[in-house]
Amino acid sequence: MISEMYIKGTQVNYYFICKTKLWLFSHNITMEHESDAVKLGKLIHREVFKRDEKEVQIGPIAIDVVRVGNILEIREIKKSRKMEDSYIYQTLYYLYFLKKFGIDARAVISFPKRRENIEIELSREDETKIKEILMDIEKIINSPMPKPEYRKICRKCAYFEFCFA
Ligand code: SF4
Protein backbone atom coordinates (compact mmCIF):
# COMPACT_ATOMS: atom_id res chain seq x y z
CA MET A 1 0.00 0.00 0.00
CA ILE A 2 1.35 3.43 -0.83
CA SER A 3 2.34 5.64 2.08
CA GLU A 4 -0.28 8.31 1.30
CA MET A 5 -2.98 5.88 2.46
CA TYR A 6 -1.78 6.21 6.06
CA ILE A 7 -2.70 9.87 6.22
CA LYS A 8 -5.61 10.67 8.54
CA GLY A 9 -8.60 12.79 7.60
CA THR A 10 -7.70 15.12 10.47
CA GLN A 11 -4.32 15.75 8.85
CA VAL A 12 -5.99 16.78 5.58
CA ASN A 13 -8.27 19.04 7.62
CA TYR A 14 -5.35 20.63 9.50
CA TYR A 15 -3.46 21.14 6.23
CA PHE A 16 -6.02 23.82 5.41
CA ILE A 17 -6.26 25.25 8.91
CA CYS A 18 -2.61 25.57 9.95
CA LYS A 19 0.58 23.84 8.79
CA THR A 20 2.07 24.11 12.32
CA LYS A 21 -0.98 22.35 13.76
CA LEU A 22 -0.66 19.67 11.08
CA TRP A 23 3.00 19.14 11.97
CA LEU A 24 2.38 19.01 15.75
CA PHE A 25 -0.55 16.59 15.41
CA SER A 26 1.43 14.40 12.99
CA HIS A 27 4.28 14.16 15.50
CA ASN A 28 1.84 12.94 18.17
CA ILE A 29 1.96 16.19 20.12
CA THR A 30 -1.72 16.32 21.01
CA MET A 31 -3.09 18.93 23.36
CA GLU A 32 -6.71 18.87 22.22
CA HIS A 33 -8.97 18.99 25.25
CA GLU A 34 -12.72 18.72 25.60
CA SER A 35 -13.56 22.33 24.95
CA ASP A 36 -17.22 23.39 24.95
CA ALA A 37 -17.05 23.37 21.16
CA VAL A 38 -15.83 19.74 21.11
CA LYS A 39 -18.56 18.72 23.62
CA LEU A 40 -21.22 20.41 21.49
CA GLY A 41 -19.89 18.61 18.40
CA LYS A 42 -20.17 15.23 20.17
CA LEU A 43 -23.70 15.99 21.33
CA ILE A 44 -24.76 16.87 17.78
CA HIS A 45 -23.20 13.60 16.56
CA ARG A 46 -25.19 11.60 19.13
CA GLU A 47 -28.52 13.29 18.60
CA VAL A 48 -28.56 13.55 14.82
CA PHE A 49 -28.70 10.52 12.47
CA LYS A 50 -29.56 8.16 15.34
CA ARG A 51 -30.27 5.19 13.06
CA ASP A 52 -26.96 5.24 11.18
CA GLU A 53 -23.51 3.81 11.91
CA LYS A 54 -21.47 6.53 13.59
CA GLU A 55 -17.76 7.24 13.91
CA VAL A 56 -16.76 4.44 11.58
CA GLN A 57 -13.01 3.84 11.49
CA ILE A 58 -11.57 2.47 8.24
CA GLY A 59 -7.77 2.38 8.49
CA PRO A 60 -6.61 5.96 9.06
CA ILE A 61 -9.96 7.57 8.29
CA ALA A 62 -12.79 8.08 10.78
CA ILE A 63 -16.11 8.86 9.14
CA ASP A 64 -18.79 10.61 11.23
CA VAL A 65 -21.79 8.73 9.78
CA VAL A 66 -22.09 5.87 7.31
CA ARG A 67 -25.46 5.05 5.74
CA VAL A 68 -25.59 1.81 3.78
CA GLY A 69 -28.05 1.83 0.87
CA ASN A 70 -27.81 1.12 -2.85
CA ILE A 71 -24.76 3.30 -2.71
CA LEU A 72 -22.71 3.90 0.41
CA GLU A 73 -23.24 7.39 1.81
CA ILE A 74 -20.77 9.03 4.13
CA ARG A 75 -21.62 12.09 6.13
CA GLU A 76 -19.47 14.59 7.93
CA ILE A 77 -21.24 16.65 10.58
CA LYS A 78 -19.99 20.14 11.24
CA LYS A 79 -21.09 22.94 13.52
CA SER A 80 -20.55 25.89 11.22
CA ARG A 81 -19.45 26.77 7.71
CA LYS A 82 -16.24 28.36 8.95
CA MET A 83 -13.16 26.55 7.61
CA GLU A 84 -15.31 25.12 4.83
CA ASP A 85 -12.37 24.21 2.56
CA SER A 86 -10.88 22.04 5.29
CA TYR A 87 -14.15 20.06 5.61
CA ILE A 88 -14.57 19.74 1.87
CA TYR A 89 -11.07 18.40 1.28
CA GLN A 90 -11.26 16.10 4.30
CA THR A 91 -14.45 14.62 2.84
CA LEU A 92 -12.99 14.45 -0.68
CA TYR A 93 -10.05 12.55 0.82
CA TYR A 94 -12.47 10.01 2.32
CA LEU A 95 -14.07 9.49 -1.10
CA TYR A 96 -10.60 9.20 -2.67
CA PHE A 97 -9.51 6.72 0.00
CA LEU A 98 -12.62 4.54 -0.43
CA LYS A 99 -12.24 4.65 -4.23
CA LYS A 100 -8.67 3.30 -3.89
CA PHE A 101 -10.26 0.24 -2.26
CA GLY A 102 -12.86 -0.06 -5.02
CA ILE A 103 -15.69 1.44 -2.95
CA ASP A 104 -17.88 3.99 -4.70
CA ALA A 105 -19.57 6.31 -2.23
CA ARG A 106 -21.37 9.59 -2.14
CA ALA A 107 -20.73 12.20 0.50
CA VAL A 108 -22.66 14.88 2.30
CA ILE A 109 -21.46 17.51 4.73
CA SER A 110 -24.24 18.36 7.18
CA PHE A 111 -24.63 21.50 9.26
CA PRO A 112 -27.51 20.45 11.57
CA LYS A 113 -27.69 23.79 13.37
CA ARG A 114 -28.21 25.56 10.04
CA ARG A 115 -30.30 22.71 8.57
CA GLU A 116 -28.00 22.68 5.57
CA ASN A 117 -26.35 19.90 3.57
CA ILE A 118 -23.66 20.11 0.92
CA GLU A 119 -23.24 17.20 -1.50
CA ILE A 120 -19.63 16.39 -2.33
CA GLU A 121 -18.50 14.56 -5.46
CA LEU A 122 -14.98 13.48 -6.32
CA SER A 123 -13.98 14.67 -9.80
CA ARG A 124 -10.78 13.75 -11.67
CA GLU A 125 -9.46 17.24 -10.89
CA ASP A 126 -10.20 16.66 -7.19
CA GLU A 127 -8.27 13.38 -7.30
CA THR A 128 -5.25 15.17 -8.75
CA LYS A 129 -5.54 17.90 -6.13
CA ILE A 130 -5.86 15.34 -3.30
CA LYS A 131 -2.72 13.55 -4.53
CA GLU A 132 -0.83 16.87 -4.47
CA ILE A 133 -2.14 17.65 -0.96
CA LEU A 134 -1.08 14.22 0.35
CA MET A 135 2.41 14.64 -1.11
CA ASP A 136 2.64 18.10 0.43
CA ILE A 137 1.48 16.76 3.81
CA GLU A 138 4.24 14.14 3.73
CA LYS A 139 6.76 16.85 2.86
CA ILE A 140 5.60 19.08 5.77
CA ILE A 141 5.69 16.19 8.25
CA ASN A 142 9.22 15.25 7.22
CA SER A 143 10.54 18.82 7.49
CA PRO A 144 11.25 20.98 10.56
CA MET A 145 8.16 22.37 12.30
CA PRO A 146 6.65 25.31 10.37
CA LYS A 147 7.01 28.52 12.37
CA PRO A 148 3.72 29.43 14.13
CA GLU A 149 2.08 32.50 12.65
CA TYR A 150 -0.47 34.23 14.84
CA ARG A 151 -3.99 34.46 13.40
CA LYS A 152 -7.44 34.94 14.89
CA ILE A 153 -8.05 31.15 15.07
CA CYS A 154 -4.99 30.70 17.33
CA ARG A 155 -6.94 31.97 20.35
CA LYS A 156 -9.20 28.90 20.21
CA CYS A 157 -6.48 26.42 19.28
CA ALA A 158 -5.33 23.80 21.83
CA TYR A 159 -1.71 24.46 20.80
CA PHE A 160 -1.89 28.17 21.66
CA GLU A 161 0.31 27.90 24.77
CA PHE A 162 2.76 25.69 22.90
CA CYS A 163 3.08 28.16 20.03
CA PHE A 164 2.97 31.51 21.81
CA ALA A 165 3.70 31.13 25.55
S1 SF4 B 1 -1.89 28.26 17.89
FE1 SF4 B 1 -2.09 29.07 15.81
S2 SF4 B 1 -0.07 28.72 14.89
FE2 SF4 B 1 -0.21 27.41 16.69
S3 SF4 B 1 -0.95 25.45 15.92
FE3 SF4 B 1 -2.73 26.62 16.60
S4 SF4 B 1 -3.51 27.64 14.79
FE4 SF4 B 1 -1.41 26.99 14.36
Automatic annotation (TrEMBL):
Name of one Pfam family that matches: Cas_Cas4
Protein name: CRISPR-associated exonuclease Cas4
Molecular function, one GO term: iron-sulfur cluster binding
InterPro entries: CRISPR-assoc_prot_Cas4, Dna2/Cas4_DUF83, PDDEXK-like_dom_sf
UniProt-listed Enzyme Commission number(s): 3.1.12.1
Listed GO biological process terms: defense response to virus
UniProt keyword 4Fe-4S present: no
Residue ranges of domain DUF83 in the record: 8-164
Membership in a protein family: Belongs to the CRISPR-associated exonuclease Cas4 family.
Role, per record: CRISPR (clustered regularly interspaced short palindromic repeat) is an adaptive immune system that provides protection against mobile genetic elements (viruses, transposable elements and conjugative plasmids). CRISPR clusters contain sequences complementary to antecedent mobile elements and target invading nucleic acids. CRISPR clusters are transcribed and processed into CRISPR RNA (crRNA).
Note accompanying the cofactor annotation: Mg(2+) or Mn(2+) required for ssDNA cleavage activity.
Cofactor needs: iron-sulfur cluster; Mg(2+); Mn(2+)
Domain of life: Archaea
Keywords: Antiviral defense, Exonuclease, Hydrolase, Iron, Iron-sulfur, Manganese, Metal-binding, Nuclease
Keyword Iron carried by entry: yes
